[in-house]
Each structure stands twice: as C-alpha cells, then as structure tokens.
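ok new one. same drill as before - structure tokens go in, u give me an amino acid for every spot. 285 of them this time. try not to just spam alanines like last time pls lmao
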C-alpha cells in the first residue's frame, strides 16, 4: 500500500472517527466471444492497467492485438497471458514522434493490417498544484500524453488515407475525467487537449469511414494510481462524487463496445467511465 494512501486513510479516520464505507463491484459484461471477431487492434501502453485490460477483452472477443510500451519484460509477460497466437508486442515510446509511421508499419506487418488504434499511453506526476510543477515534468507529460498521442493519431489517419478501403477503421483515445475539470497541472491539461482532438478529428474523418472516440476514466486502479487508489482489500470506496474507485476491466468493456460494429453511429464522443464524477451540479436544497 502506498504511503500517501496510508496517510490519507489515517487522516480521514481521525477526522471522521469512523472507517470508510465499503464498496465492492462486480464487473458485468455482454457474453458473446465474437464481438470483435477478425479485428486487428493496436494498444499503446498495453503492458498493464487499463491498456492490458482492454487487450485481454479484445482478444477474448476474437480480435488480434499488438500491445506496446517501454518495459519489454512487462510486455512479454502480458503477451504470454494474452496468448501468443492472438497477441504480439513492440517496445515503443510514444514520445518518439519521429518513429510513429515506422511503429505503425511494424504493427501492420504483425497483424496483416490495422483496423483500430487505441491510443492509451500516458503518465502523470500527481503534482497536486501548479506550485509543484517543474519544467522537466511539464515537458515529459506533454511530450507523452499530448504530443506523442497527437502525432501517433495523425500517422494512423494518414496511413488509413492511403488504403483503398477504410470502412470500419477506428481511433480510440483514452483521456481522463480531468480533461473536463478545470486543472492547473499538466496531466489534466493534456487530457483536455486530447478531448478537443477527438471531437475535431471525428468531424474531419467520419464521412471517410473512420470513427474517432474517447474514453475518459475516473480514478481507476493501475500502476499510475497505486499510491492513492490501491484496493488490495477489495474495498473500492473513495471520497468523491461517485463514492468509489473504478476497475480497468470496466473501462475495457466500454472500449470493446466502442470498437464493435454495434456502435457505428457513435463518433466524436468522450465517454466518461466515472459515474458522472466530473459533473458538478449546484443543489439549492
């Protein structure tokens, strides 16, 4: 358990003189096994967390995947778990924008084509306030979260433009609930930029046969959030509007639907997987 989370739990207990509520969740899914049959999907940041959960769901629904990230050992273990017949990996850092086209070419060769790109890779340094933001950390987050994802998405769309048949092609960006909340730290600012990118790109390419959507998770269990969202005891309680932490598998179910043919009429949308935590209504009573 991260020390930050321990401090928060102790402070909350002292202030309220009572332990947290207990929240558990059962991940519901649509039973099919073939929703994504034959689709070829690339997932950046696919070695763990939300990226790996999505890759698992895609493979379970009949897709073939390439996952990428910077940690080769993590990727190897993930591919073994996913199944070597349906999954491949490439070591790739999305901040290396000069390699976008080459990376996609490698993925295309491994899969025999690419139908969907899930642009998921990202980092956060959890500064808490603009006063704690350094130039170096600012640049790292913008280079990975925004610049890297921007040029990778651009390369994907340019690649599809050169193909005879792009019907069914999809671009899915994993943003964050922080993209729709006023933030003065880099992570939320990069995600706001990605939300805007989703909507603008969709207007440009939907008529050409390419759909562009985004998923904006709330606080979800992952390596990125482990210092404050660890729930090894099964308690998913969190002191926020939704009252809980979310699971990567829940996000994966939504991603699966968006990449399926059942959602052909959906494009340019940011789907929040946070039970409305980003909404701040004003109650008068």
């Amino acid at each position: 358990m991260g020390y930050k989370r321990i401090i928060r739990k102790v402070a909350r207990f002292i202030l309220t003189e009572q332990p947290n509520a207990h929240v558990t969740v059962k991940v519901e899914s649509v039973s099919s096994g073939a929703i994504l049959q034959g689709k070829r999907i690339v997932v950046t940041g696919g070695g763990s967390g939300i990226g790996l959960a999505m890759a698992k769901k895609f493979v379970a629904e009949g897709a073939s995947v390439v996952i990428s990230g910077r940690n080769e050992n993590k990727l190897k273990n993930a591919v073994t778990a996913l199944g070597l017949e349906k999954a491949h990996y490439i070591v790739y850092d999305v901040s290396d924008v000069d390699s976008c086209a080459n990376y996609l070419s490698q993925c295309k060769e491994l899969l025999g084509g690419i139908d969907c790109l899930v642009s998921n890779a990202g980092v956060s340094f959890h500064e808490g306030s603009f006063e704690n933001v350094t130039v170096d950390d600012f640049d790292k987050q913008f280079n990975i979260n925004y610049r890297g994802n921007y040029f990778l998405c651009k390369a994907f769309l340019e690649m599809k433009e050169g193909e005879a048949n792009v019907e069914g092609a999809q671009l899915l960006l994993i943003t964050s609930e922080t993209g729709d909340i006023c933030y003065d730290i880099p992570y939320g600012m990069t995600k706001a930029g990605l939300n805007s990118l989703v909507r603008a790109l969709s207007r440009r390419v939907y008529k050409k046969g390419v759909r562009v959507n985004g998923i904006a998770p709330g606080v979800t269990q992952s390596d990125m959030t482990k210092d404050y969202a660890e729930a090894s005891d099964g308690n998913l309680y969190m002191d926020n509007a939704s009252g809980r932490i979310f699971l990567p598998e829940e996000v994966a179910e939504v991603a699966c639907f968006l990449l399926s043919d059942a959602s052909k009429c959906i494009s340019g949308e940011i789907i929040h997987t946070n039970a409305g935590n980003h909404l701040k209504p004003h109650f008068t009573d």
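The chain has a mean pLDDT of 89. and btw Residues 238 and 244 are 4 Å apart (CA to CA).
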